[in-house]
Amino acid sequence: MGLFGFFSTKPKNRLALDLSKVKVDMHSHLIPGIDDGAQNMEETIAMLAKFEALGFSKIITTPHIKHPTYPNSSADILDGLIEVRKQMKLAGINLELEAAAEYYFDETLLEKIKNKDLLTLGDNYVLVEFSFIHPPSFEDLLFDGLIKAGYKPIVAHFERYNYFLGSIKKAAEWRKRGVNIQVNLLSLTGHYGMEIKKQAEMLIDACEFDFIGTDCHRIDHLKILEENLTLPYLEKLNNYMTKNRLL
Ligand SMILES: [Fe+2]
Question: Which pTM does this prediction carry?
Protein backbone atom coordinates (compact mmCIF):
# COMPACT_ATOMS: atom_id res chain seq x y z
CA MET A 1 0.00 0.00 0.00
CA GLY A 2 1.46 3.40 -0.97
CA LEU A 3 1.73 6.25 1.45
CA PHE A 4 -1.28 8.02 0.02
CA GLY A 5 -3.27 4.83 -0.01
CA PHE A 6 -2.55 4.38 3.68
CA PHE A 7 -3.68 7.84 4.63
CA SER A 8 -6.60 8.23 2.28
CA THR A 9 -9.98 7.44 3.75
CA LYS A 10 -12.08 5.13 1.65
CA PRO A 11 -15.57 6.43 0.99
CA LYS A 12 -17.77 4.63 3.49
CA ASN A 13 -20.18 2.21 1.99
CA ARG A 14 -23.21 4.03 3.40
CA LEU A 15 -26.74 2.85 3.26
CA ALA A 16 -29.48 5.18 2.12
CA LEU A 17 -33.22 5.32 2.47
CA ASP A 18 -34.51 3.00 -0.25
CA LEU A 19 -37.45 4.87 -1.78
CA SER A 20 -38.26 1.97 -4.11
CA LYS A 21 -39.22 0.07 -0.96
CA VAL A 22 -41.29 2.97 0.37
CA LYS A 23 -42.90 2.71 -3.08
CA VAL A 24 -45.68 5.26 -2.63
CA ASP A 25 -45.43 8.98 -1.97
CA MET A 26 -48.71 10.02 -0.37
CA HIS A 27 -48.28 13.78 0.10
CA SER A 28 -47.38 16.26 -2.65
CA HIS A 29 -48.67 19.27 -4.60
CA LEU A 30 -48.41 18.42 -8.29
CA ILE A 31 -51.64 19.56 -9.96
CA PRO A 32 -50.50 22.74 -11.75
CA GLY A 33 -51.81 26.15 -10.73
CA ILE A 34 -54.36 25.17 -8.08
CA ASP A 35 -52.35 25.66 -4.88
CA ASP A 36 -48.84 26.67 -3.77
CA GLY A 37 -47.24 23.63 -5.44
CA ALA A 38 -46.42 23.22 -9.15
CA GLN A 39 -47.43 26.39 -11.00
CA ASN A 40 -47.44 24.97 -14.54
CA MET A 41 -47.37 21.63 -16.36
CA GLU A 42 -43.64 21.91 -17.05
CA GLU A 43 -42.89 22.01 -13.33
CA THR A 44 -45.29 19.13 -12.71
CA ILE A 45 -43.62 16.92 -15.31
CA ALA A 46 -40.12 17.75 -14.04
CA MET A 47 -41.17 16.74 -10.52
CA LEU A 48 -42.78 13.53 -11.69
CA ALA A 49 -39.62 12.61 -13.63
CA LYS A 50 -37.61 13.19 -10.46
CA PHE A 51 -39.99 11.03 -8.41
CA GLU A 52 -39.45 8.23 -10.93
CA ALA A 53 -35.66 8.68 -10.88
CA LEU A 54 -35.69 8.50 -7.07
CA GLY A 55 -37.32 5.06 -7.26
CA PHE A 56 -40.96 5.72 -6.35
CA SER A 57 -43.52 3.69 -8.29
CA LYS A 58 -46.74 5.44 -7.25
CA ILE A 59 -47.62 9.03 -6.41
CA ILE A 60 -50.81 10.15 -4.70
CA THR A 61 -50.81 13.89 -5.05
CA THR A 62 -52.69 15.93 -2.44
CA PRO A 63 -53.50 19.55 -3.41
CA HIS A 64 -54.60 21.89 -0.63
CA ILE A 65 -58.29 22.42 -0.06
CA LYS A 66 -58.49 25.49 2.16
CA HIS A 67 -61.05 28.26 2.22
CA PRO A 68 -60.70 30.95 1.02
CA THR A 69 -57.05 30.54 -0.08
CA TYR A 70 -57.36 27.36 -2.16
CA PRO A 71 -61.08 26.76 -2.73
CA ASN A 72 -60.53 23.62 -4.81
CA SER A 73 -63.38 21.18 -5.33
CA SER A 74 -62.98 17.42 -5.77
CA ALA A 75 -63.84 17.95 -9.46
CA ASP A 76 -61.10 20.59 -9.91
CA ILE A 77 -58.53 18.13 -8.58
CA LEU A 78 -59.78 15.14 -10.58
CA ASP A 79 -59.93 17.19 -13.81
CA GLY A 80 -56.35 18.29 -13.15
CA LEU A 81 -55.33 14.69 -12.53
CA ILE A 82 -56.66 13.59 -15.94
CA GLU A 83 -54.59 16.27 -17.70
CA VAL A 84 -51.42 15.50 -15.72
CA ARG A 85 -51.77 11.77 -16.45
CA LYS A 86 -52.06 12.58 -20.17
CA GLN A 87 -48.93 14.77 -20.18
CA MET A 88 -47.03 12.30 -18.00
CA LYS A 89 -47.68 9.55 -20.53
CA LEU A 90 -46.51 11.80 -23.39
CA ALA A 91 -43.32 12.50 -21.43
CA GLY A 92 -42.68 8.75 -21.09
CA ILE A 93 -42.81 8.76 -17.28
CA ASN A 94 -43.78 5.41 -15.90
CA LEU A 95 -45.53 6.11 -12.59
CA GLU A 96 -48.92 5.26 -11.20
CA LEU A 97 -50.59 8.59 -10.42
CA GLU A 98 -53.61 9.24 -8.22
CA ALA A 99 -55.00 12.30 -6.46
CA ALA A 100 -56.61 13.01 -3.12
CA ALA A 101 -56.34 16.25 -1.11
CA GLU A 102 -54.82 17.85 1.97
CA TYR A 103 -57.85 19.21 3.81
CA TYR A 104 -57.40 22.22 6.03
CA PHE A 105 -59.20 21.72 9.31
CA ASP A 106 -62.09 24.19 9.63
CA GLU A 107 -65.90 24.10 9.68
CA THR A 108 -66.07 23.63 5.88
CA LEU A 109 -64.33 20.28 6.38
CA LEU A 110 -67.02 19.18 8.84
CA GLU A 111 -69.58 19.99 6.16
CA LYS A 112 -67.67 17.86 3.63
CA ILE A 113 -67.58 14.92 6.03
CA LYS A 114 -71.34 15.19 6.48
CA ASN A 115 -71.81 15.15 2.69
CA LYS A 116 -69.19 12.38 2.25
CA ASP A 117 -67.49 14.65 -0.26
CA LEU A 118 -63.88 13.74 0.48
CA LEU A 119 -61.08 12.51 -1.78
CA THR A 120 -59.40 9.57 -0.09
CA LEU A 121 -56.08 7.72 -0.24
CA GLY A 122 -56.03 3.90 -0.39
CA ASP A 123 -58.64 2.36 1.90
CA ASN A 124 -60.54 5.52 2.91
CA TYR A 125 -57.65 7.47 4.47
CA VAL A 126 -58.13 11.26 4.57
CA LEU A 127 -55.17 13.66 4.86
CA VAL A 128 -55.88 16.68 7.10
CA GLU A 129 -53.75 19.61 8.19
CA PHE A 130 -54.09 22.11 11.02
CA SER A 131 -53.13 25.76 11.35
CA PHE A 132 -49.40 26.23 11.92
CA ILE A 133 -50.10 29.05 14.38
CA HIS A 134 -53.15 28.15 16.51
CA PRO A 135 -53.58 24.73 18.10
CA PRO A 136 -56.74 22.95 16.91
CA SER A 137 -59.59 23.49 19.37
CA PHE A 138 -62.27 21.08 18.22
CA GLU A 139 -60.18 18.28 16.75
CA ASP A 140 -62.13 15.63 18.70
CA LEU A 141 -65.19 16.58 16.71
CA LEU A 142 -63.21 16.25 13.49
CA PHE A 143 -61.67 12.90 14.33
CA ASP A 144 -64.96 11.47 15.64
CA GLY A 145 -66.78 12.77 12.59
CA LEU A 146 -64.28 11.22 10.20
CA ILE A 147 -64.09 7.88 11.99
CA LYS A 148 -67.88 7.58 12.41
CA ALA A 149 -68.29 8.28 8.68
CA GLY A 150 -65.90 5.39 7.92
CA TYR A 151 -62.82 7.50 7.13
CA LYS A 152 -59.31 7.00 8.53
CA PRO A 153 -57.74 10.36 9.41
CA ILE A 154 -54.07 11.09 8.73
CA VAL A 155 -52.63 14.22 10.36
CA ALA A 156 -50.16 15.79 7.92
CA HIS A 157 -46.62 16.61 9.13
CA PHE A 158 -47.30 16.47 12.87
CA GLU A 159 -43.73 17.64 13.56
CA ARG A 160 -44.31 21.00 11.84
CA TYR A 161 -46.93 22.34 14.27
CA ASN A 162 -44.97 24.81 16.39
CA TYR A 163 -47.35 24.59 19.36
CA PHE A 164 -46.47 20.89 19.83
CA LEU A 165 -42.68 21.27 19.55
CA GLY A 166 -40.77 19.46 22.28
CA SER A 167 -43.53 16.93 22.97
CA ILE A 168 -45.02 14.12 20.93
CA LYS A 169 -47.68 13.27 23.54
CA LYS A 170 -50.49 14.44 21.26
CA ALA A 171 -49.31 12.16 18.46
CA ALA A 172 -49.32 9.17 20.81
CA GLU A 173 -52.74 10.13 22.19
CA TRP A 174 -54.25 10.56 18.73
CA ARG A 175 -52.74 7.31 17.42
CA LYS A 176 -54.40 5.42 20.31
CA ARG A 177 -57.77 6.59 19.03
CA GLY A 178 -57.18 5.55 15.44
CA VAL A 179 -55.66 8.71 14.00
CA ASN A 180 -52.63 8.23 11.76
CA ILE A 181 -49.57 10.47 11.93
CA GLN A 182 -47.55 11.49 8.86
CA VAL A 183 -43.96 12.76 8.94
CA ASN A 184 -42.38 14.84 6.16
CA LEU A 185 -39.10 13.35 4.92
CA LEU A 186 -37.80 16.91 4.46
CA SER A 187 -38.22 17.56 8.20
CA LEU A 188 -35.44 15.04 8.84
CA THR A 189 -33.05 17.00 6.61
CA GLY A 190 -33.43 20.18 8.70
CA HIS A 191 -35.20 21.93 5.81
CA TYR A 192 -37.79 23.50 8.14
CA GLY A 193 -35.32 24.19 10.97
CA MET A 194 -33.62 22.27 13.74
CA GLU A 195 -36.53 22.16 16.19
CA ILE A 196 -38.77 20.55 13.60
CA LYS A 197 -35.99 18.10 12.71
CA LYS A 198 -35.72 17.13 16.39
CA GLN A 199 -39.49 16.69 16.67
CA ALA A 200 -39.53 14.40 13.61
CA GLU A 201 -36.65 12.38 15.09
CA MET A 202 -38.61 12.00 18.34
CA LEU A 203 -41.59 10.61 16.43
CA ILE A 204 -39.35 8.09 14.70
CA ASP A 205 -37.45 7.04 17.83
CA ALA A 206 -40.74 6.48 19.67
CA CYS A 207 -42.31 4.87 16.59
CA GLU A 208 -45.30 7.23 16.92
CA PHE A 209 -45.88 7.66 13.19
CA ASP A 210 -47.63 5.78 10.40
CA PHE A 211 -46.88 7.39 7.05
CA ILE A 212 -43.95 9.25 5.51
CA GLY A 213 -44.30 11.72 2.65
CA THR A 214 -42.31 14.23 0.65
CA ASP A 215 -44.89 17.09 0.80
CA CYS A 216 -43.11 18.15 -2.38
CA HIS A 217 -44.19 21.60 -3.63
CA ARG A 218 -41.35 22.16 -6.12
CA ILE A 219 -38.46 20.24 -7.61
CA ASP A 220 -35.98 21.71 -5.11
CA HIS A 221 -37.72 19.72 -2.39
CA LEU A 222 -36.92 16.47 -4.22
CA LYS A 223 -33.33 17.59 -4.84
CA ILE A 224 -32.84 18.27 -1.11
CA LEU A 225 -34.24 14.84 -0.34
CA GLU A 226 -31.98 13.19 -2.94
CA GLU A 227 -28.91 14.85 -1.42
CA ASN A 228 -29.82 13.67 2.07
CA LEU A 229 -30.92 10.07 1.60
CA THR A 230 -27.87 8.86 3.55
CA LEU A 231 -28.73 10.91 6.66
CA PRO A 232 -28.91 8.50 9.63
CA TYR A 233 -32.56 9.28 10.42
CA LEU A 234 -33.61 8.78 6.81
CA GLU A 235 -31.63 5.52 6.61
CA LYS A 236 -33.29 4.46 9.84
CA LEU A 237 -36.66 4.51 8.11
CA ASN A 238 -35.62 1.38 6.17
CA ASN A 239 -36.21 -0.49 9.43
CA TYR A 240 -39.80 0.66 9.81
CA MET A 241 -42.78 -0.80 8.07
CA THR A 242 -44.70 2.38 7.25
CA LYS A 243 -48.25 2.19 5.95
CA ASN A 244 -47.24 3.79 2.61
CA ARG A 245 -47.20 0.41 0.94
CA LEU A 246 -50.86 -0.15 1.86
CA LEU A 247 -51.92 2.70 -0.37
FE1 LIG B 1 -48.76 19.55 1.98
Answer: 0.93
